[in-house]
Amino acid sequence: MAGFAELGLEPSIVSVVADLGYETPTPIQESAIPALLTGRDVVGLAQTGTGKTAAFALPILQKIDPSSRQTQALVLAPTRELALQVCEAFTSYAASTPQLQVLPVYGGQSYQFQISGLKRGAHVVVGTPGRIIDHLERGTLDIAHLDVMVLDEADEMLNMGFAEDVERILADTPEYKQVALFSATMPPAIRRLAKKYLHDPIDIATPQATQSTTSVRQRWIAVSHHHKLDALTRVLEVETGDAMIVFVRTKQATEELAERLRSRGYQAAALNGDLAQQQRERTVNALKTGALDIIVATDVAARGLDVERISHVVNYDIPHDSEAYVHRIGRTGRAGRQGDAILFVTPRERRMLGAIEKVSGRPIEEMSIPTAEEVNARRVDKFAQEITSNMGSPQFHAFRKLVEQYATENDVEMIDIAAALAVKSHDGDEFFISGDVPSPARREPGERRERREPRDARPRDGRSIYRIAVGKRHKITPAMVVGALANEGGLRRSDFGKITIGAEHTLVELPPDLPDEVFRALADTRISGRRIDLRLDRGRPASRPQRKSKPKRS
Ligand SMILES: Nc1ncnc2c1ncn2[C@@H]1O[C@H](COP(=O)(O)OP(=O)(O)OP(=O)(O)O)[C@@H](O)[C@H]1O
Ligand SMILES: [Mg+2]
């Protein structure tokens, strides 16, 4: 296998990566580094956690002229956390060239700080599309002399509706620059973008590139919507690992679930796009340092995030599409380490499992919700470990004397004292649990029909009409609307009234009494990869029907 030096990298860079502990280049690095060094445009596809960042960062760093103050490289990333992380990676790879300036530019951070950084001269700018555009419009960022532009997680930027923003940024760059796109997944839309903006690109796809990573053990659990929390707490009790990321569908669900986990004694916090940026960064840092063990996140954390401690990914809510699944579980099992992914599947999501398995490219084993017996056995193990580890405590001998004294004075056996202390150390909580979480019954053929009848009987009048916008130039069909919404909100086909597809938006008749939870889930729907804008057009409002029309720019 070739070393980094054989790829054409300079000795100073080779020694930096050696210091970071990189022994051999990963397959994507082996192919993309020489291609980028020769100036070619690149579409790079490789599994999650296989070092795509260094694959573009190292050749870029080598080509930068630190004596010029121009911005020579621009990297776009879909989320703020990722922009920051990629920026940190660049900085660590640039250790041998301290005069080289790398600047993160993303929303939620003060403009002043960014502007003074840009004024001083940033050779590499790493940012999210929204904030980069703001700086272009204010005239505080000049990319007219750019040599290279990278779109990290290119497909996600299109999914998030950033296509126009990306094109707007590209329009400000010189014609003869190098462009590279990287991701672990490349749906067809990205091919079109590549065709339009890349000159004769080299397509690099490492073997099994778009599949889920080989180093993650994948399992799924059949669980009813009702029992997800119980199932999760049992999983938390029996799995051994370090840190965990739990993916849920909505921002509100991140808060609710994190709170529930905290009340059960776990160090858990929510991560979603509505939180203040400082809070978001604190949360990711706390996970890195071990101050937190569980992050409950929306898909804002699905892409790119590289936290070594994450040993488990739980898909508490099934992802929107198979690509999201591949990226979510890729938060563990990185850089050759092993990881575990567990997917919760409710009965009506069963058919999505097959689709996910197909794209993921690997079998997902079924596991059952841990039984009371399994949980109790783990508790007994942990109890034994606690005893052993506390025997090494510096206070052990002092307490031992006290216990001895108590035993003589009160004439009780040591074992009774030990048991009494164990009760105290568990706060008097019930140590053993009983009963099992019921697994959902698989739907019997006739059952669905019967349950449907009362709903079907409801009069059709009094429905509400919802307006859906999926972005112009995006063709949708009634079947796509029903498919996506039925899936997302758990609606039945019979819930849908008339569907009128228009040029600007689509009107859908739905029951007037959509519960809050269903509405929120619907509002998070994607139709063929694009987030929709859902709002009430006419009729009795479901609660909180208004929603911002565009995903928040970062
Ligand atoms: N050649 C190498 N040897 C060892 N470790 C490496 C090497 N290259 C990168 N790494 C480490 O591997 C981890 C994952 O790298 P990176 O975040 O670039 O993956 P990625 O391919 O971009 O994944 P994702 O698709 O999830 O964004 C990082 O912690 C990085 O430091
Ligand atoms: Mg990455």
TrEMBL record:
Q: Where is the composition biased (Basic residues)?
A: 545-554
Organism, as annotated: Aeromicrobium phragmitis
DEAD-box RNA helicase Q domain mapped to chain residues: 2-30
Bias (Basic and acidic residues) ranges: 441-463
Give the subcellular location. Cytoplasm
Per UniProt, the keywords (alphabetical) are:
ATP-binding, Cytoplasm, Helicase, Hydrolase, Nucleotide-binding, RNA-binding, Stress response
Short motif (Q motif): ranges: 2-30
Specify the Helicase ATP-binding domain's residue ranges: 33-204
Q: Where is this region: Disordered?
A: 432-463, 532-554
For this protein, the Enzyme Commission number is: 3.6.4.13
Provide the catalytic activity annotation: ATP + H2O = ADP + phosphate + H(+)
Phosphoprotein in keyword set: no
- Organism classification: Bacteria, Bacillati, Actinomycetota, Actinomycetes, Propionibacteriales
Domain Helicase C-terminal, first and last residues per copy: 228-375
Which top-level enzyme class is recorded in the Swiss-Prot or TrEMBL entry? hydrolase
Q: What is this protein called?
A: ATP-dependent RNA helicase DeaD
Job of this protein? DEAD-box RNA helicase involved in various cellular processes at low temperature, including ribosome biogenesis, mRNA degradation and translation initiation.
Q: Which family does it belong to?
A: Belongs to the DEAD box helicase family. DeaD/CsdA subfamily.
* A GO CC term attached to the entry: cytosol
